[in-house]
Amino acid sequence: MMGEISLIRIIDVEYIKDYTMRLEFSDGTKKVVDFFHC
C-alpha cells in the first residue's frame, strides 16, 4: 500500500534572543524553539 508523501520545510527563521528562534514551516505552522535547553 502506497501512501502520499508530503514534505514540510522551514521557510523562515527569526532570531528572538540567546538561543531562542521562531521557525515558520511550509504548512503555515510556527514554533518557538530553544536550541540550548539543559
UniProtKB/TrEMBL annotation:
Gene3D superfamilies: NE0471-like N-terminal domain
SUPFAM superfamilies documented for this protein: NE0471 N-terminal domain-like
InterPro entries linked to this entry: NE0471-like_N (IPR036782)
Name the record gives this protein: Gamma-butyrobetaine hydroxylase-like N-terminal domain-containing protein
Organism: termite gut metagenome
